[in-house]
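Reply to dn_fold:

You asked what the input looked like. This is it:
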Amino acid sequence: MAMKFDSLLAIRVKNVSRLCRAKPIVTVNGRFPGPTVYAREGDRVLVNVTNSAQYNISIHWHGLKQFRNGWADGPAYITQCPIKTGHSYTYDFNVTGQRGTLWWHAHILWLRATVYGAIVIMPKEGRMFPFPQPHGETKIILGEWWNSDVETLVNEANKLGLPPPTSDSHTINGKPGPLFPCSSKHTFSMEVEAGKTYLLRIINAALNDELFFAIAGHNMTVVEIDAVYTKPFTTRVILIAPGQTTNVLIKADQPRSRYFMAARPFMDAPVPVDNKTVTAILHYKGIPNTVLPSMPKLPAPNNTNVALRYNNRLRSLNTPQFPAKVPLKVDRHLFYTVGLGANPCSSCQNGTQLTASLNNITFVMPKVGLLQAHYFHIKGVFKTDFPDRPPVPFNYTGVPLTANLGTSLGTRLSKVAFNSTIELVLQDTNLLTVESHPFHLHGFNFFVVGSGVGNFDPSKDPAKFNLVDPPERNTVGVPTGGWTAIRFRADNPGVWFMHCHLELHTMWGLKMAFVVENGKSPEESIIPPPKDLPPC
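and this is what came back:
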């Protein structure tokens, strides 16, 4: 029987000390990371968010489909206006047809640097995991830490038209680990018993970095990604992009000792990243803390082969109970180029503002929530003329293009017919530089049917698509200098955001939205807005 769960998230500022210094950060319930939201498949969840910080806030429930209920999705100025200081809003949603690990985070400014936490959805009562039942489980939330105030750094960088500095450390459950100064006490430790099996729920909450993760001496068996069960496979290292989740089983089958869990970035493009290694400790019961942990062998930061091999091993479980419902017939083909750019800016350091675009369009955030504008028929907020392909074809991944880097600006959405099947190819480009881009689609899961290096070839590449058991996700990486093809069924009416999950590129305009219409008025196809919806 479905249950109703009520939670309270209090947004407030608190002084937190890391890396030998303290600073005020925005926290949830005074905790960093914030509390885990627990539910069971089929539950109704109500989360009251009260904002006592100086910033406007909104919370996104990353990966929850929110069927007909964009009001609970959370991206500021897309499905709601933010919750102002001193106000509150209750997110009211059903967990339908989903179970596994997801996460929640702030979806305005760069506040998700500290405002984030896990969502754990258990299977329905009486249902088992489709893999060996673990003895215990632990959440591993990977994040980033800046010594300075993040919003100040971002505002200063924007004035110059440049990116802000990279983070000062990565974190595991909010802690940098003993390789950093003043951080022995800020180290996450997980105790295990020899011979027992444990489930790790791993979340990449970092703002800008894809991460390799490994545990010294131990194999990991991948059993789930983005709250979708996978065909299990064993690996020494996983790759996880910002926004993604991965569940792995580990068996405490090594000599009783202490072992480092470690993560550091994967970056195979000439782009600066915080390249330091964050660690936590896997601690066998009964072993004294004086034993020095051993370190896992992580791949080189630019090891493209390891990254591609890992992603190619991901497959949906695709059983009668958990089928992979891949669209075999495509109603509409979309081709979006992903690129950086530079627009004139008289006040910026070099006379230009770095920017980013899809199909050469840099998205301009509205002042009214797009879903409100759609539902209440407010004119002039957005257009529905986002193009299905780029304005001018070119050799997307050829020599770097450093001239004519201007983009067009606009709040342009793509109108999609309800229940139609969509194939979207996301193509990286060498505008300024090639780079990997993780993309997140709100309101849907999708199947990653293909990917490759170089330019997508519509006459040859579709023949190699996996249409049987491709991985099903809500966030996918577009490889550096390559492409990714996804398919999904547009079965969720409303306005749904799609954006790069590198916060830097999202800020620069690497985003767009779909309007899914079913022939009825918005008032008939979308549930009514809640009475406490924040005003714009």
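The two ends are 38 Å apart (CA to CA).
Hope that clears it up.
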